[in-house]
Design brief:
homodimer; alpha/beta; Rossmann fold; 2 domains; 11 helices; 10 strands
Amino acid sequence: MLPELLWVEAPLSDADWRELLREKRPEIILCAWETPGLPLEAAEHLKYLCYLCGSIRSLVPRELIERGLKVTNWGAVVSNTVAECALLLILAALRRVGNWSVAMRTQGQWKSGRHPDTLSLFGRRVGLHGLGAISRDLVRLVEPFNVQLSAYSPSVPDETFERLNVRRSETLEDLFSRADVLVELAPGKPDNYHLVGDDLLGLLPPHAVFVNLGRGMVVDEAALVRASQQRGLHIALDVYETEPLPVVSPLRSLDNITLLPHLGGPTPDRRRDCGELALQNLENYLASKPLTNLIDLGTYDRAT
Amino acid sequence: MLPELLWVEAPLSDADWRELLREKRPEIILCAWETPGLPLEAAEHLKYLCYLCGSIRSLVPRELIERGLKVTNWGAVVSNTVAECALLLILAALRRVGNWSVAMRTQGQWKSGRHPDTLSLFGRRVGLHGLGAISRDLVRLVEPFNVQLSAYSPSVPDETFERLNVRRSETLEDLFSRADVLVELAPGKPDNYHLVGDDLLGLLPPHAVFVNLGRGMVVDEAALVRASQQRGLHIALDVYETEPLPVVSPLRSLDNITLLPHLGGPTPDRRRDCGELALQNLENYLASKPLTNLIDLGTYDRAT
């Protein structure tokens, strides 16, 4: 017998949402962004939350998972397009695409002379702050560039480093001081607040580029501005401490920067991958089979 | 015995250059950009021109090669960094980096809503107009993206297509009509003048992106502007019909475009690859061994 299906249009007020849950008492919820948070009473009927997107912290109180609620999200199915955006920002920072876009489109400019201030990724030392799903996909994408990879990620076991052919940095100081290209992909947990500041940025070698695709709060943006203005650090960012990035942010007026408005996540054309994963998980749930990307309390606590 | 070595600073007037050649009668010349053209009389003494860069048409009269002058250039040693720039422009066009660079840096903007107009390279159909050294290197770089590759290049044998796992397009119409990503890398020979115009651009599928890293003269820029304005084609260019690109070019004010000022060639950090190749060739010449990237009359006539 097929389960009863109710389609609900977002947005929905918090009050309407609670009323609906009390009335319909769903066993399964399939949802995406714009869904209001779940009340604790949902534990009485809700068994499975199939979330099409990523962050569930504001949607699901920890207590619901403690009480047995199954929750899945897009997990690693979107990490390849985020890794693609990381590669794009690396290449863009090395070739100064942000600068040339502004100069060519708004200032009528052209290069002067035959010695542009551009760099290639081939043969460079790439440092990854974090070695989760996105970094692992990025390792595959940069493989043809013959780079030397290091990563700092204390929680990831040696076997993973060896399998990926990535050198382990025992400290962030080691990671930053050896990275021609530093890719920031550390999670946005409170411990990491402003972890990257003047000290670490000052260790980057001359001509290094700095890319952040992870969480804005990990990086002290004032220190980033100083590194750009005083040491000529080239920067490419997709994430910021405050989003939307304030109009008055000094990042917007730096000389050497490429900025995207948090577009790293799955491009709309690849959202079908999330849909296919969700469908498979719904089938598995109804057939009492194991679910993919099931969020346990450890994952919940590490999530951003 | 080591040969006598004379170091000459550029720039040098045409007259001074001829005078110097008459006086010194060098057997070997090692040179780069800014070298004046060789007079025919150089055939009396010059045996080997080791050119550090690419295009030699304006430097070497065809008759000198006919009369036995050996000429080498950077050949395929720089094609990997041009392929890198091609990948960058593909990813930039798909994510609208040119637009966001201008919007974020000069207009204080942020994305609106959760559905940005961006695309991923994963799984897309990529069409290559030309299957020379740059395209072949690009094939390696896009391999992790699981793309479907086609190319139009009548002079390249079937074995090359098979080895690279690239589908042969028998016509340009076939190539363009199947390409989500069209990469223009055809040589700038007279036959190719404005080969890509309204007809071919009109065959590109909806949401296609068009990238030119080859030669500007192959593409009718007025048709490119029409395709952008009337059909929303996304464009990324490194080369132009007229370089430097005129300040008043309508390309500069298109909505959906990423522009670079002909930076595809080897980034300065990789020029040492050209130097190493030249050194090896000089050693080989002095030891009467075969030279790498020797330019015969066929190569000369096909060159851009």
